[in-house]
Amino acid sequence: MSRNAALFALLCLVWGLTFLPVRIASAHTSPLLLAAARFVIAGGLLLLWAGRDAGKVPRAAWPRLIGTALLVNTANYAFLFWGAAHAPSGLSAIVNMATIPIWTLIAVRLIEAEAVTGRRILAIALGTAGLGFLFGQRLSGGVGSGDALEAWGLASVAFGTLCYCIGAVLSRPIAGTMPTLTLASWQTAIGAAGLIVVTLALEPVGAAELAGLLAWPVAPALAFLVGAGSLIGFTIFIRLLRDWGAFGAGLYAFVSPVIAVIAGVLLLDEPFGRSEAIGAALMFAAAAIALRR
Fold this sequence. Notes:
Shape: globular
Helix content: over 70%
Distance between the termini: 25 Å
Number of strands: 0
Oligomer: single chain
């Protein structure tokens, strides 16, 4: 196995397992506070890692950098963490990772007016059908049921992912004006500031809540999200982008959700039946079509 193949396997494992600590930790602390803590720590570490390159942001790029950071990290992870706290971790991973190529197609069309081909329409249709299988059975239980709450959680994950994709497309004009690590570190740090504002506005945060971040099982979950999910995962992904290109690096979207589902079923006894399998298959097919060169 080549070095990059081994790193790809590690990336799939790490990002496939990130939904598990979110689900576990959110049972003991606010998911918004958890997201804010993750990005405060990760943002600070990434800025330190960037070093002198952190100052290489053109003045004209700052407005777009701030706006995209609020989409890519603040809006995305506020909705994603809340959703992942209320839905099975495996299904959250499928909705998040399999919809990225689909939402990106839509965002590119709306923002950059790129032509919509028949292949892209098919991808969007399959992805929509897949979401229908995941949501339909849950909503049929009624708005007040636990299954309905799971459906709202998955919808929150999907909307957060849409925010991420819009922000990613809007980031393209400034991506070439600064080092990749500079862009990522500032988007993370600014996103963290936004998450702090959102958390303070919506959740009671005091000494007890902050101390809870250092307690079991929140502390190890947070450490995994920062160390493995943000730092190790990001480092590997940037290397694979350089060596394999966007298509090759993006193939984690087909492997990581499978790992997330297996982990959720084995460790949290999460359900995964026929409707979930059909929905996942349709969404993976949509993502494969969307990712085709």
